[in-house]
Amino acid sequence: MSPKDATAATRATTTENLASLQAHILAEETRHPGASGDFTWIVSAIQFAGKAIAHMVRRARLEQVLGDYGEENVQGERQQHMDVIANRIINRCLGERASIALVASEEDETPTIIRTGAEGGKYCVLFDPLDGSSNLDFGVGVGTIFSVLRNDAEVADAEQTLCQPGSMQVAAGYILYGSSTVFVITTGNGVDMFELDPHIGSFLLVKGGVRVPRAHRVYSINEAYRDQFPRGYQSYLDWAHRNGYSSRYIGSMVADVHRTLLQGGVFMYPPTAKHRDGKLRLLYEANPMAMVIEQAGGLAYSGLERTLALQPHRLHQRTSVLMGSADEVEHVRRFMPTAADAGFEDD
Ligand code: AHM
Ligand code: MG
Questions:
Q1: Each residue's pLDDT tens digit, 121-136
Q2: Mutation to probe ligand 1, out of 133, 135, 137, 222 (largest number of atoms < 8 A from CB)
Q3: Under 8 Å between Cβ of 267 and 216
Q4: Does residue 128 have its Cβ closer than 6 Å to ligand 1?
Q5: Rounded CA gap, 137 and 287, in Å?
Q6: What's the gap between Cα 172 and its chain centre?
Q7: Three-state secondary-structure class, residue 266
Q8: How do residues 8-61 score in pLDDT, each as one tens digit?
Q9: Domains 17-207 and 218-342 share a fold
Q10: Which one of the ligands is nearest to 141 CA?
Q11: How many angstroms separate the CA atoms of 292 and 261, rounded?
Q12: Cβ 132 under 6 angstroms from ligand 1
């Protein structure tokens, strides 16, 4: 075989190989000397939960578990039946894994302490079990968002342990329950995308090293709130209208960010009159998505600050969100020279 043939053969094998998420994470972990395998087990629990939720999402109407659960969560928002089901599934899957110290969810007021640092608790997992769940009744894509932090055994208070800047995340990602079930993850070494093969029950690698295109003339925002947005966003929208931009908004962050990741553009949820700090939650919505987008070569901001640099103060803290293609995010930022352009602070 000539060297040229050998290269062609190697390439063919590489692109045709089947890699499961489990094998991929194991291979990544073995690159870190002294790695214990604990982290692989956590990702394994998250994907296990993802498969169970995907199954429930597909059967929700048949099982008559769509719609309002009749209660509000800690954020004062109506819970859907499926929020409660997805939350229970993830808690049950994570509670089983030996290295988990704390688990925190959008649906639970306080973090759950699984074990202390002294008992072997090394990691904390935060998640939004079913983001965009109010869309479920209409067959729209929804998702689970997750963020993994190290447990700091020195910090006694569980909530304060979780209040780490997003730049400290060990891993982050999401599972999209759409026309297919997609698992996107970063461990700080680029972004990889897997799809669930429902017949063999595994997430298989479909794209490694995902990069968000540098530019794409699409913005994703709930434009009905335009008059409530800070003036910088309004000026940007006026500019985009004059410059041939298109708009795409599903109203499900996971689906909107996933499209932005693959196709480019910019996703925004600015402050509004109702949500003066923004609607989305910093620790388990904005931070994990910001890590994915940055690891794919994009940018993510909250007001004038890089999202991943914000120091959180509360578990359920909200923030504004601006993320996507580097060039498109910079276009938006040009209309925000001061904090007042990006928020509601006085000049
Ligand atoms: P949720 O966590 O209660 O589901 O709310 C978050 C969702 C996001 O998925 C989405 O980006 C946003 O709320 C949509 O809000 P709006 O309907 O105000 O545009
Ligand atoms: Mg949410």
A1: 999 999 999 999 888 8
A2: 222
A3: no
A4: yes
A5: 27
A6: 7
A7: strand
A8: 444 444 456 789 999 988 888 887 766 778 889 999 999 999 999 999 998 878
A9: no
A10: 1
A11: 8
A12: yes
User: Tokens for 168?
Assistant: 């400290």
Contacts of 331 by beta carbon, 8 Å cutoff, 6+ apart: 236, 239, 240, 266
Question: What angle is formed at CA 188 by the lines to CA 185 and CA 193, rounded to 5 degrees?
Answer: 25
Euclidean distance between CA atoms 113 and 100, whole angstroms: 9
3-state DSSP assignment of residue 33: coil
Domain boundaries, the chain: 17-207, 218-342
Q: Which of 240, 245, 243, 232 is nearest to 335 (CA)?
A: 232
The CA-based angle 256-259-265, given to 5 degrees, is: 90
Q: Whose CA is nearest to atom 6 of ligand 1?
A: 132
Tell me how far the alpha carbon of residue 62 lies from the centroid of ligand 1, in angstroms.
Answer: 25
Q: Model's pTM, two decimal places?
A: 0.92
Q: How far is the CA of 280 from the centre of ligand 1 (A)?
A: 7
Q: What are phi and psi of 283, to 5 degrees?
A: -75, -35
218-342 fold: D-Maltodextrin-Binding Protein; domain 2 (3.40.190)
17-207 is classed CATH 1.10.8.420: no
Q: Do 224 and 329 contact (CB within 8 A), yes or no?
A: no
Q: Is the CB of 140 under 6 A from ligand 1?
A: no
